[in-house]
Amino acid sequence: MNKVSEIVSKYADRLKAFGIQLSAEGEIKKEDQMAMAVLADGTEVSSPDAEFSVGSELFIKDGDGNPVPAPDGEHTTAEGKVIVVAGGIIAEIKEPEAEEPKVEIEIEEEKQAAFEGVSKEEFESTINSLVEAFEAKIAAWNAEKENLSATIEKMSKQPAVDSVKKSKAIVEEKQMSKSEFFKMSQTDRVKYLMNNQK
Fold first, then answer.
1. Is the separation of the CB atoms in 71 and 59 below 8 Å?
2. Which residue in 53, 85, 137, 139 is deepest, having the highest Cβ count within 10 Å?
3. pLDDT digits (tens, 9 = 90+) for 167-188
4. What are phi and psi for residue 102, nearest 5 degrees?
5. Can you give the pLDDT at residue 115?
6. HEC string for 22-89
7. Global pTM?
8. How big is the CA angle at 96 (ends 94 and 98), to the nearest 5 degrees?
């Protein structure tokens, strides 16, 4: 046996798991993809077809790892799919049944229990009173908003402070008598004279 044949025989099993088959001549052959699954008991099953379907062959591996036809009967996969085999051929595939949502049913029963003893009229009356209360609250907020908007608009039209010119005009109009003028301190008299000069 030559070196190439040794290498091919050494790694052929590992590569075959990935669908690659090596030959001693150095050619690489890509095998068709085959469907594989694990049964609930841990046994690996495979089919030469790309996916499991009715009419496909189903194989399991024997103790040496060689594929042998699967025994007749029902085989359940880890995902819950049931594959029915007759004579090594898939006769039927049963999809797992969806479990009923028990939690949702219990919640619905709790909701119904919460409404027991309350008539439709009582329920509607309660809802209507809540709606009226909310509408009254909203109307009060809208009225307050309008009032605040009017106040803000009125204030925005008024000047922030009296102008400087108005203040000077008031000071100028105030005339002082001579006796008042002489009662002032010297600095106040100078300020008064400077303001009146302008």
1. no
2. 85
3. 555 555 567 788 888 888 989 8
4. -65, -35
5. 62
6. ECCCCCEEECCCCEEEEECCCCEEEECCCCCCCCCECEEECCCCCEEECCCEEEEECCCCEEEEECCE
7. 0.36
8. 135
Q: State the sign of the Cα–Cα–Cα–Cα dihedral 161, 166, 168, 174.
A: negative
Question: pLDDT per residue over 131-178, tens digit each?
Answer: 888 899 999 999 999 999 998 888 888 877 666 565 555 555 567 788
Alpha-carbon distance 92 to 86, whole Å?
Answer: 9
Residue spans of the chain under pLDDT 70: 1-4, 7-8, 11, 14-33, 98-116, 161-174, 198
Coil/strand/helix, residue 99: coil
**How many angstroms separate the CA atoms of 7 and 26, rounded?**
10
Distance CA 5, CA 26 (A): 9
User: How many other CB atoms are found less than 10 A from the CB of residue 126?
Assistant: 11
